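For the sake of transparency, this paper describes our internal protein records without simplification. An entry from our holdings is shown next, in its original layout:
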Amino acid sequence: MRNSLIAFGLAAFVTHPALAYDGLVAKQRFDYPGVFTTVGGAAIKQVAVGYETLGTLDTSGSNAILIPHFFSGNSHFAGRYKADDKAPGYWDAIVGPGKPLDTDKYFLSGIDSLCNINTKDGVTITTGPASIDPDTGKPYALRFPEVMPTI
């Protein structure tokens, strides 16, 4: 019973909206130089990757944490793009000073994955099937190369 109460209290603490990360974040962009080659050998020109970071990277780089997301998600793990945004980051409740993903201790980075389906949402930058193929001027659609290795 005691362990259940502790677990319930912890869950309430980290999911309480008043304790959510309330900072603003900036979407950043990295343009891959040259042509990106997938594990399967396919070439993708003009690859862009969207990402967000919070915290400060230490001199050794040992405090970096990559924040993963579900396959169709994007890099928006905490905060808001504008003060009036209705959609906070998906890990808001556990990001910030004194929380499990403490921005005073860690450098947190989230990335948009290649083949992301959210490319038309206005904030997802990363190249994917909805992106324009520079060779054809049309969306890649089903011609977008497989970027995950097959098993």
